[in-house]
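ok here's Copper-translocating P-type ATPase:
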Amino acid sequence: MSALCQHCGTPVPATRSDGFCCSGCLHVHHMLHEHGLEHFYHLKAGQAVPPVSAQALREQDYEWLEAASKTAEAVRVNDSTAVELSVSIQGLSCMACIWLIERVFAKMGGTQIHVDMTRGELRFGWEPGKFSPVEFAQELQRFGYLLGAPRTDAGGAADNDLERRTGLCGAFAMNAMAFSLPAYFGMPADFAFARSFDLVAAASATLALLVGGSYFAMRAWRALQAGVLHIDTPITLGILAAYAGSIIGWLCGEGGLKYFDFVAMFIFLMLGGRLVQQMAVARNRRRLLRDPSIPEESLLRELRAGAEFTVKAGQAVPVAAKLEDAHASISLEWINGESDTCTRSAGQLLPSGALNAGTQALHAIALETWRESTLCTLLEARRGGDSRDLRLERLLRGYLIVVVLAGVIGGLWWWLSTDDWTRAVQVMISVFVVSCPCALGVAMPLADDIAASRAERHGVFVRSLGLWKKLTQLSQVVFDKTGTLTLENPVLVNADALDKLDACAQQALRHLTSGNLHPVSRSLFDALAHVPDASHEAEVLEEAGHGLSFQDADGRMWALSRPVDASADAVFTRDGAVIAAYRFRDALRAESRDEMAALRERGLQVRILSGDREAKVAATAAQLMLRRDEWQHSLTPGDKAAWITAHDAPHTVYIGDGANDSLAFDAALCAGSPVSGRSFLEHKADFYFLGHSMRFMSRLLGIADTHRLAVRLVFAFSVTYNVVTAITALMGHLSPLLAAILMPLSSAATLSLVALIFRSRTARESSDGMEAVTVQTNLAA
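and the structure:
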């Protein structure tokens, strides 16, 4: 069993011996202790939090925040004027995060702050001239939190609507139950307030039907129009049958037909389950900020052929363009997967999707419109909805036919044999009511939520409701290479060369590499994350293809450049004298070999599709012991998608991180992406992951197996429960009171069953892990 990171609690890669999963977690851990905020770990109480994103370690552009703070609304607080601003925030995970953010905010002199962890939003206020929002954002970034512009996505509106429906139906259900209980406890029909109680219960059920029942009815109707049989169909049937019977019973004075409390409570439970199911997914979707590499949409729409435009450092070139500057350093990693940067001279082509890897903005002339560009095609490619489960549809179709026939035939039999139409209607409605998948509708969301929580412990975050079903249908796992199988940055071989530098030199090197996208710069900057920023004001100059330099306040010239010989990959100089030389190598993510072996043991095929050169892909494949037919090189985005389409796409998961993987995402059954801070794919993937370990995939599949087991057992329980209660109803023994009692009991039973399955499987895995550690220890001894 792997050791757990001292900061985030996710498994530590076998390649690290410092007790942390990545340099980001190491940096934040030191920051918390340095500022006396280690109480964060007591509040976390052993709960796993997301690993610190590498994006949080790098220089961010806060121009948007500076502009927003100048136009923020002014409000009156305690007889004084304050300015308030709402922003989105990345990195929240638990109450400890809120405590930490509030401490940092109070230390910097803010007046009021509200953190909405569910929505990933932060609203704070300050007195003008006494607080700097940009400095606050920079301080939060040092602790691993990133601020971004407020979200404008429409997903929040749908979530708010479901929350409102659930809250209102909860109130209606309480009313309906409160005013139905007296009848159950023997209130006589001629009691003075009996009709008033019935009226309140009927009104509550009607409102619950209109507010909450309409949610399921609309979804069932849309599904039927599309030729799909959805689980909301039997739910809608049960709701309508119970409500119709209740109205008939109320108007006719037949107490045996009144299910008003059942209707309201059933709708509330179903909405509550659906809300739990969607909240976890919505929370993960809101964890990430908008990709800063892509310019604002309003600017993109205005691009025309011949128009001049500017690309900031770290941003993508949106359209094919001609470079106007004398030189520029760009990265084609998004396009073809090659991590090395290259240079362009004035008049040369800048392809759409190339990243400005330099420290300065570049200027270019557009050769096409935004709609014609390759990057636009990749960005607007969208994954389709969850694939239809034909087996479930057939099962639901058969189930509904049986339920309807049983209810109608049972009702007719009672009518013909007893000549009591009210008893016949009660039997028919009782069959429809107890056949509703109430227990299944409550337990399934819980299974999804527990599975998502288990995945988060391994740094994986689920964005798609249908992911667990898809993961059990896989036959192959296809990986991109650069940034996916390999680390985002090359590994510094001689890390001790950094430790030997004095504090002044470390700060100078940190300043040189800050904000530069060259792989060497990114690697050095991440390694120096613990070094305090000396706030050098001197501008870093870049000579494209040669290196970086700046002159400090004391007149010393610092530079990071290519060496004259092949003994190193980069040299760090002071006034022309070499004070350190650095060597780098591309490295696989931790535990990549073990992960490939684990996936093969599951019977899955493993493939690599890369746009990188043959030699680089061959070297990676050799380390992973892949055969020649198990990897492809020099592929375009279209080539990747075509390969997946031709090789069992309905049973393939694709994992990639660049824009060149976007079309492959859409071709595969499901897709995942690492969070690099320079890719939009995590915003469209079925799941994304943080940290540097590759072992997440087999663990995710293990969670999917547990989820499938829980679903099957809950389904078996629900079928058994429905058969027993349906027979009871057909025999005429199921009264509204018994139905009202059995409904919450069955739901509680299925919830307990789901929790027990996940707990027992987790305990078994922990036991197996401890046995493995014991065996390894004994062997070592």
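+1. The first helix runs from residue 23 to 34.
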